[in-house]
Amino acid sequence: MLYSMIMAGGSGTRFWPMSRELFPKQFLSFEGPDSLLAKTVNRILPLVPEDRIAIVVGATHASETRRILQGMNDGLGRECRLVIEPRSLNTLPAIALTSLLIAREDPDAVVAVMASDHLISPQDHFLALVQHAAGIAQNEKVLLTFGIPPHRPETGFGYLELGEELPAFSTGLFTARKVAKFVEKPDLTKARLFLSGGRHHWNSGMFVFSVRTFFEELSLIQPTLFESLSSVREALGQAEERRAIDHFYRHTSPLSIDYGLMEHSSRVWSISGPIDWKDVGSWSALDDISPHDNEGNVVRGNAVMIDTENSIIHADKRVVALIGLKDMIVVDTDDATLICPKDRAQQVREVVSRLRDRNAVEAMEHRTTHRPWGHYTVLDQGPMYKLKSVTVNPGGRLSLQMHLHRSEHWVVIAGTARIILGEEEIFLHTNQSIDVPKATKHRIENPGKVPLIIIEVQNGEYLEEDDIIRFQDDYRRTDETHDTFAPPPVKEDHP
To answer: What domains, with CATH codes, occur in the chain?
Structure first.
């Protein structure tokens, strides 16, 4: 049985200010309306049913991941499994844990591992490549990686140095070869030699293997990591499993699958085929994936340009005017603006690091934050107060919750609100309002057929989003409903 594992735990700092720590790049859309994550799920769905797709996410991204899955193609991604990491440990621990959870369900499983931030076409060639690799992995004790023949001297990717050809496992479309070694990101001189020599492929970071072969190699190459999974392997029941996973993540060191496993294995093969693969790594990647105007610019949004060439411009809401720019990146959002030369796009992560050092909210989240029930926008804030516009989708409701450090005042701007306040049930209509004291259980629900819009005024000594105690929640954000390797919940209808 073929399973798919989608790695969606990255922070996407190089796409700031569009990406934030709580809204990383896998949630962004670059080609059409679908996010990178939704595109990745859609890409593999014809080959792997949703209940055999496992998505690895961080705890802070689980809610948005579920929202995206439930919104896909009338809920086509609703049955995808989630593996929620307590903290990020790079790729090998996450792949090892998820492979174990899959193996407990199917000891003969073959797993296709892919990233959530790649663009790949055509889909039929990609699926045929995965299927061919899965057939090899099922019958041969090897770990397969997808190599991408380079078409430029790229210094931002790692490379595979290819060894012996394997004609018995090649076809008219696909070529299989042993991997001699993994190569670090080269300088420009080496990258040019790799391009002309024909013995190096880009390392795509996608893998196919049987769980049996994976754990055989892991036990030999990383015996400590393999042994540390024993408590998860032996756990009985959800509560014990959660404790075992937390223990595993507290006592395991970060390690990538390349450094930790693949580079030390003699069983690694590369398989390549006629696919167009793009790693959406930074703003400069938009030059490869987006259409250009007559001056070579990639333009999104409301921009006015005079004598501007070969630049990347993303204007969110405001008019952005550019005069005499060349080879530049300009990204404007509600609360932050990025301006830098294209050849320094990789340094955007340094901006995020400095913002984090200042505890700046602009590193963490946008002014508008999406939730499974709708979204909210921060309109203004200062010492002891915060002003929000809150939109609740028809049929949506927030968790039954309480705040210890703030009171709230709600004014209905549009729609009808069903309010739970303590033991009371109250209906509010346009221009009506209500006060929510500190330490009082409360809930907002939209029972109508149009969006409910509320202006919320918060007052208190602490106004951050983690001042929430949840008692009931439809979206599995309370500990008692947190079920690892379970599909997202089906939202119930509410009266």
So the answer is: 2-279 (3.90.550.10), 283-351 (no CATH), 368-478 (2.60.120.10)
